[in-house]
Write a structure and sequence with these properties.
Blueprint (H helix, E strand, L loop, with lengths): L8 H11 L4 H22 L11 H6 L1
Protein name: Type II toxin-antitoxin system VapB family antitoxin
Organism: Paraburkholderia ferrariae
Length: 63
């Protein structure tokens, strides 16, 4: 999908330097993937302490 928008030059330069990516497109795509992953983690965290799990984690790790 082709989209045009303006991004703060300093912000983009900092993102390029921090990630080591070569293009602005790569930075934007990484940012979107990261945002989506964080939102999914946030949704999963809502279940913390609400699921009754029984088992032996140490035993499961041996398999």
């Amino acid at each position: 999908m082709r989209t045009t928008f303006e991004v703060d030059d300093r912000l983009m330069a900092e993102a390029l330097a921090a990630t080591g990516l070569q293009t602005e497109q790569e930075v934007v795509e990484l940012a979107l993937r990261t945002f989506i992953r964080l939102k999914r983690q946030e949704e999963i965290r809502r279940y913390r302490g609400k699921i009754d799990w029984q088992g032996n984690l140490d035993e499961m790790r041996k398999d």
